């Protein structure tokens, strides 16, 4: 995991908000048609934040590139999960180096 890549990803408040929402998907995405065990569908972020599909996709791609989320693709749909192991590893590294 590239620490600077993660810090850049966390520098935007919308991306931090996405991670916060994914931490409690039952609370924030209860109306999703697909089971939340599949992850949060990309269009749910669009509905919740009101940003365009391309902007939401760019934010999610940044989080994926940083290793903070994983994607589960099912047909034309993309479902997102937090990568808890990588988030924990990043926090531990940050704690030990700063």
Architecture overview:
With 98 residues, this protein is of the alpha+beta class. It has one domain: Orthogonal Bundle (Arc Repressor Mutant, subunit A). The protein contains six helices and three strands, in the order αααβααββα. It has helices at residues 3-10, 13-23, 25-28, 42-49, 53-65, 84-97, and strands at residues 40-41, 69-74, 77-82. The protein has a three-stranded antiparallel sheet. Helix 1 (3-10) runs antiparallel to helix 5 (53-65). The longest helix is centred in the last third of the chain and has 14 residues, at 84-97.
In short, what is this structure?
InterPro entries: ArsR-like_HTH, HTH_ArsR_DNA-bd_dom, HTH_MetalResp_TranReg, WH-like_DNA-bd_sf, WH_DNA-bd_sf. This protein has 6 helices and 3 strands.
Number of strands: 3
How would the global form be characterised? globular
The tally of structural domains comes to: 1
Rounded mean pLDDT is 95
Which spans of ≥5 residues are poorly predicted at pLDDT below 50?
A: none
Percentage of β-strand residues: 5-15%
Q: In the CATH classification, which architecture applies? A: Orthogonal Bundle
Specify the CATH class: Mainly Alpha
Largest sheet strand order: 1-3-2
For this structure, what is the CATH homologous superfamily?
Answer: Winged helix-like DNA-binding domain superfamily/Winged helix DNA-binding domain
Helix and strand element order: HHHEHHEEH
Q: Terminal Cα separation, in Å?
A: 17 Å
Question: Which topology does CATH recognise?
Answer: Arc Repressor Mutant, subunit A
Determine the number of helices (DSSP H or I, runs of at least 4 residues).
6
Largest sheet: 3 strands, antiparallel
Structural class: alpha+beta
- Which radius of gyration do the C-alpha atoms yield? 13 Å
Tell me the helix content.
55-70%
């Amino acid at each position: 995991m590239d620490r600077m890549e993660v810090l850049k990803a966390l520098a935007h408040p919308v991306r931090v908000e996405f991670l916060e929402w994914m931490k409690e998907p039952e609370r924030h995405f209860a109306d999703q048609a697909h089971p939340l065990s599949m992850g949060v569908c990309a269009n749910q972020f669009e509905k919740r934040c009101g940003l365009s599909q391309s902007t939401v996709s760019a934010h999610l791609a940044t989080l994926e590139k940083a290793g903070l989320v994983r994607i589960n693709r099912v047909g034309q749909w993309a479902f997102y999960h937090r990568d808890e192991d990588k988030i924990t590893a990043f926090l531990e590294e940050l704690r030990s180096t700063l």
